[in-house]
């Protein structure tokens, strides 16, 4: 029996949510699976991935083949690296401590990259809000300024007409 590590779709239409599972290659996409390894939520930015790295490594060492998307997710979370380092330990190229040190260093570096991305996204979002607010404020001020002269012109015209009629009535009464 060949085993694949793949995604199993859940969630409603337009809002996908995936389980990362180890399943028989002959099973349906959303059918029977051997073990649930984690979850993947692509609806948020950055995507939420909850993965049992040790469980994924166990299945990889037993010969499970990940699909392309699952391989990308496993690589992103470090399961492929941990599997690679475990192979080096088995061959004698590394000790267990060296492999664990390399893996933890990689995890720390990855965590800083993810936090930087989240900070950059929040900063970009706040800048976009500030820019939109400034543009809206400028439009409102322009609208107010455009409305102001019209009122003043009308008032000036009415005042001029009143003055003309007053002068005309004075002239008539003076005659």
Please supply descriptive tags for the structure shown above.
alpha+beta; 175 residues
Summarize the structure in short:
By secondary structure, the chain is of the alpha+beta class.
Structural write-up:
- There is one protein chain.
- With 175 residues, the protein is α+β, with helices and mostly antiparallel strands.
- Helices cover 63% and strands 17% of the residues.
- It is built from four helices and five strands.
- It has a five-stranded mixed beta sheet.
- A hairpin with a 6-residue loop joins strand 3 and strand 4 (48-51).
- The model has no long low-confidence stretch (mean pLDDT 88).
Question: N- to C-terminal separation?
Answer: 120 Å
| Category by helix and strand content | alpha+beta
Order of helices and strands: EEEEHEHHH
Please report the total strand number as a whole number.
Answer: 5
What does the main sheet amount to? 5 strands, mixed
Task: Explain the layout of strands and helices.
Layout: E1 3-10, E2 17-24, E3 35-41, E4 48-51, H1 53-61, E5 65-66, H2 68-77, H3 79-91, H4 96-174
